[in-house]
Amino acid sequence: MRAIQFTQYGGPEVLTLVGDAPEPSAGAGAVRIRVHATAVNPFDYKVRSGMMARGAALAGPVILGLEASGVVDQVGQGVTGVAVGDAVFGLGPATYAEYAVLRAWAPKPERLSFAEAAALANGGETALRVLGLLALEPGQVLLVHGAAGGVGQAIVGLGVVAGLRVIGTASEANHDLLRELGAEPVAYGDGLVSRVDQLTDHVDGVIDAGGTQLDELLAIAGSPDRVVSIANYAARDAGVRFSGGGGDAMEALARVSELAAAGRIAVRVARAFDLAEAADAHRLSESRRASGKIVLTVA
Ligand SMILES: NC(=O)c1ccc[n+]([C@@H]2O[C@H](COP(=O)([O-])OP(=O)(O)OC[C@H]3O[C@@H](n4cnc5c(N)ncnc54)[C@H](OP(=O)(O)O)[C@@H]3O)[C@@H](O)[C@H]2O)c1
């Protein structure tokens, strides 16, 4: 099958389109899809660069990708509620390819294109997971740091659905986008604490999807237990919870699918590239200037 793979760590140029990658099979509890679109996430360039390998050598070719949309063509043992031919989106490894196995999935909302659906799973699952950790009540104030990013936008959308007052940090150019999503925008960088003070006299919870300004985020929250980070491992040293996974992804995706089908959350595909242009897609992702999800179109 066609896939994007790499055989050595390095820059975007190590990503190569091949036509003979082995096809995966749906094992027990999983489905296989004919991939229509897959999204590019920051995790992908962190793996590609070798940053996650801690010096270990590559054992063989690696196909990147965490999420995709497509049509089910194999149903693994023990799987119910989904059939060959169903359009779905979900989470699974090695999704920069013609076929991929999903470990968690949900129906693709009809109103969304395959590209939009490919961009729903990782942000949606992560957002519900971290919002669940903070467990805020309707009316409470949430600050999302890095709110205009692919995951940040999902946190804002799902925070608004949960009835929270959401303040989001972003570059000036993304402030209208945050307003459209229902958040009050504020610029990140020097002076963040006083800018947030001008908007509110207290913040009940902070989600760090930006990975910077930990001291300021702690000052805004007032206590490390009101902060959850998904982007800064070092935050743990300050007593902040870091969330990297866990939870019931099937349940989260079912909720995300329902809300997207009802038009209550929206995904902004910043740019779609052809699968063969994966290196350019990584360059854009690494710039941290996409203002939304980056998608690779496969079929
Ligand atoms: N732990 C997990 O489970 C998990 C899951 C998903 C993602 N993540 C991580 O979460 C992070 C965000 O992911 P993403 O997909 O949203 O990335 P993304 O789409 O690349 O977004 C990055 C955002 O960071 C903002 N940003 C750039 N420079 C910044 C700075 N100096 N301070 C604060 N924000 C800044 C940008 O805002 P502007 O465009 O407004 O400048 C941009 O919107 C990544 O590190 C990713 O690996 C973790």
Give the helices and strands as they follow along the chain.
EEEHEEEEEHHEHEHEHEHEEHEHE
Mean pLDDT: 97
How many helices does DSSP assign? 9
CATH class designation of the largest domain: Alpha Beta
The CA-CA distance between the termini, in Å, is 12 Å
CATH superfamily of the largest domain: Medium-chain alcohol dehydrogenases, catalytic domain
Q: What is Rg?
A: 19 Å
Largest sheet: 7 strands, mixed
CATH fold type of the largest domain:
Quinone Oxidoreductase, Chain A, domain 1
Helix content: 25-40%
**Outline type:** globular
Q: Structural class of the helices, strands and pairings? A: alpha/beta
How many beta strands in the DSSP annotation? 16
Q: How much of the residues is beta strand, in percent?
A: 15-25%
CATH architecture of the largest domain: Alpha-Beta Complex
What hetero molecules are bound to the protein chains? NADP nicotinamide-adenine-dinucleotide phosphate
Name the poorly predicted regions. none
Describe this structure in words.
This protein is α/β, with parallel strands linked by helices and 299 residues long. The chain folds into two domains: 3-120 and 267-297, Medium-chain alcohol dehydrogenases, catalytic domain (Quinone Oxidoreductase, Chain A, domain 1, Alpha-Beta Complex), CATH 3.90.180.10; 124-242, NAD(P)-binding Rossmann-like Domain (Rossmann fold, 3-Layer(aba) Sandwich), CATH 3.40.50. It is built from nine helices and 16 strands. The strands form three sheets. Strands 3, 5, 6, 7, 8, 15 and 16 form a seven-stranded mixed β-sheet that branches. Strand 15 (269-274), helix 9 and strand 16 (293-297) form a beta-alpha-beta unit. The site of NADP nicotinamide-adenine-dinucleotide phosphate (NAP) has 30 residues, from helix 1, helix 3 and helix 4.
